[in-house]
Amino acid sequence: MSAEMDALVGRVANSLEALEAALYGFKQVRGTFTSPDRSITVEVDGDGAVTSLRLAESVTAQQPSEVSQLILWACQQAAADATAQRAQVMAELNKSLPRSGTLIQPTGNVGGGPDSARGSH
After folding, report:
1. Class of the CATH-defined domain 1-96
2. What secondary structure letter does DSSP report for 31?
């Protein structure tokens, strides 16, 4: 292979590794939050879906409307945690990918000059 082709294959392989690492990272995202009084603990996945909700016995002494508000607030906090983790995974991915936005970086005068379509008359 030529040096240019070797470089292209290397960039593609590096980008593929970065994408695979990002996919793995996204699957590992778990946002969690426990209320200050430790009565509610919520865990969400990387999409923000609740995967675990634990309520302490102490919530039975509160009004249902208060408990529901606390649950929603805890879910928001856990989702914010997951969002921050996803942002970190994206930042790592962005650092790993080529800055030009393309894997193929032509060298030389590919395709001719600005007037090459007119022909030479």
Report:
1. alpha beta
2. E
What whole-number distance in Å separates Cα of residue 88 and Cα of residue 31?
A: 13
Taken in order 70, 74, 76, 77, is the CA torsion positive or negative? positive
3-state secondary structure of 30: strand
Question: 21: helix, coil or strand?
Answer: helix
Question: How many Å is the maximal CA-CA distance in the chain?
Answer: 92
Beta strand segments in 1-66, E: 30-34, 40-45, 50-55
Ranges of beta strands (E only) in the chain are 30-34, 40-45, 50-55
Question: Alpha-carbon distance 9 to 86, whole Å?
Answer: 28
Residue 65, both tokens: 């409307």
**Higher pLDDT residue, 100 or 51?**
51
Confidence (pTM): 0.72
pLDDT digits (tens, 9 = 90+) for 52-110: 999 999 999 999 999 999 999 999 999 999 999 999 999 999 888 877 655 545 444 44
Contact 103, 17 (CB under 8 A): no
Domain boundary assignment for the chain: 1-96
